[in-house]
Amino acid sequence: MAINNAKHIVSEINGVRCTIIESGATLKRVAFLSDLLKFNNLEVKEMQEVSEVPGEEPKYTIGVTDLVFNPVFAIYERLLKTREGSFVTPGYWNQECIECDPRYWVRRKGARKTFDG
To answer: What band does 67 get if pLDDT is binned at 50, 70 and 90?
Structure first.
């Protein structure tokens, strides 16, 4: 689920009803979100999607068992924390920066540390 869409999607992952956090995610993205959500005391479920194209990188669906959890509300209401103790910002959630300015409405060029280096 992109954080620019607050639509709440509930589906089953491995027989357990879950709030879908993101679908079509790479394994690296699933590892990042899974670690972040588990750190925030949410039970995470993952499922590999069936690919129709052979040789394509596998995609995954990730969800949490808390049916009322909505990542958009959790981020903007400052309910999620990082391992460093700061609040999760939209930039951090999207893996655009590591030390993000908590004022999500301010965009600065070159002032952020990114996940890629």
So the answer is: very high
Tell me if 58 sits within 8 A of 52, measured CB to CB.
no
The torsion defined by the Cα of 105, 113, 61 and 34, in degrees rounded to 10, comes to -110
DSSP assignment of 83-95, as one string? TTSPBP-HHHHTT
Which residues share a beta bridge with 20?
63
Q: Which pTM does this prediction carry?
A: 0.80
CA distance 57 to 100: 30
**Beta strand residue intervals within 1-117, DSSP E:** 10-13, 16-25, 44-48, 60-64
Question: Taking Cα atoms as reference points, which of 69, 67, 10, 22 lies closest to residue 47?
Answer: 22
pLDDT tens-digit map of 7-52: 888 999 999 999 999 998 999 999 999 999 999 999 999 998 887 7
